[in-house]
Amino acid sequence: SFRTECFVGFGRQLGAPVIGIVSTKFQDWLYEFFGNPLNPSYMTGVLSKFSRPMTFWQRLQNTLLIKNTIATVKAYSKEQIAIANKYFDHHIADLKELYDGVAMVLVNEHASISDVRPTTPDIVPIGGLHVDHNDEPLSE
C-alpha cells in the first residue's frame, strides 16, 4: 500500500476486484477502512518504536502518534481523491469509499514475529512467505 491509493481506483474503474499487498505491518490508517479494531492502548502503531507491554506514558505517546498519522494521511488524501475524481468515471467521496472495492489484503506479518492483533477475514497475514527463485522449467 505505502499510500498508493491511486492504483485502487483503477480496479474500481475497470470493475475488477482488487487485492492489496502491504509489505510491512498492517498500516494504522487502513484499520478503519476494513472494519478492524485499532486500540492504541495495547496495539503499537506501524511507526511506533515501542514494544509490548507499554507503560502508561508509552501508551499515551503511541495513541498520539497513531491519531496524528491517521489525520495526516486523511489530509494528504483529499488531493488524491480530487485527482481520482477528475480522471475516473466514478465519484469518490473519501478513502473509505475507495477501499470498499478491495477484496483482500495480503500483509507481511505473522503472529510469531508480530503483535497478535484482531483482524477481519479479508486481512491475510503472509509473513515468512518466500518465493523460490530457481529457473527450472515447469513440468508438462
TrEMBL record:
InterPro entries: UDP-glycosyltransferase (IPR050271), UDP_glucos_trans (IPR002213). Signal peptide: none annotated. One of its GO terms (molecular function) is UDP-glycosyltransferase activity. Transmembrane segments: none annotated. Pfam families: UDPGT (PF00201). Keywords: Glycosyltransferase, Transferase. Belongs to the UDP-glycosyltransferase family. This is Uncharacterized protein. It comes from Bracon brevicornis.
